[in-house]
Write a structure and sequence with these properties.
eight-stranded antiparallel beta barrel; 19% helix; 190 residues; alpha+beta
């Protein structure tokens, strides 16, 4: 009977968060993050290159603009171009929860009921960033991941290297969606 309840709850949750990546069990506890992460170097504009499906992100030309609010706290403005031509934006805050591990942050958006993990697995601050989030949801966990770039594109060799980091964090990179960052298509957003 208990197994049937677990299956039912898992299926119910899957229906309510369509397009999310759910996996059985708990979040991995051995995910490596960026050593010596410096939040002040992270601020600025980032382009979404690839991401795991997320019910809250459905557009193209997605960008995130990070601004320093105070030591260890950055504001974030996410924007994307929706299929109907409108621009969807959402404001949030990202903060360092433990100064000993500054790459393990939390993010909060007003449309979310609770903060989520925002872990920077890798960044060189000027070219790429790999962001990871995992939330335990009882018998399953939800994965989110993004590959970001300071420019609308990344080289194939750089993407392959970043795929390796995500694979090591138990992310199936084959499930990732390529974000359209075509300058002509995205010009409606700017």
């Amino acid at each position: 009977m208990k197994a049937l309840q677990v299956v039912f709850v898992t299926l119910l949750y899957s229906l309510t968060v369509s397009a999310q990546v759910l996996k059985p069990g708990k979040c991995p506890d051995n995910v490596a993050v960026q050593a010596d992460f410096d939040v002040t170097k992270y601020v600025g504009k980032w382009y979404d290159i690839k991401r795991l499906p997320a019910s809250f992100q459905n557009g193209e030309c997605a960008t995130a603009l990070y601004t320093l609010r105070s030591p260890g706290v950055i504001g974030v403005l996410n924007s994307e171009l929706l299929a109907d031509g409108s621009i969807h934006t959402v404001n949030g805050s990202v903060w360092v929860t433990d100064p000993e591990e500054p790459a393990k942050m939390e993010v909060f958006f007003s449309e979310m009921a609770f903060p989520g993990n925002y872990w920077v697995l890798s960044t060189d601050y000027v070219g790429h960033a790999v962001v990871y989030s995992c939330q335990d949801l009882g018998q399953v966990h939800e994965l989110l991941a993004w590959i970001l770039s300071r420019k609308p594109t990344l080289s194939k060799s750089k993407l392959e290297r970043l795929h390796g980091l995500l694979t090591a964090a138990d992310v199936n990179v084959d499930q990732m969606i390529v974000s359209n960052q075509d300058p002509v298509y995205c010009s409606a957003k700017h």
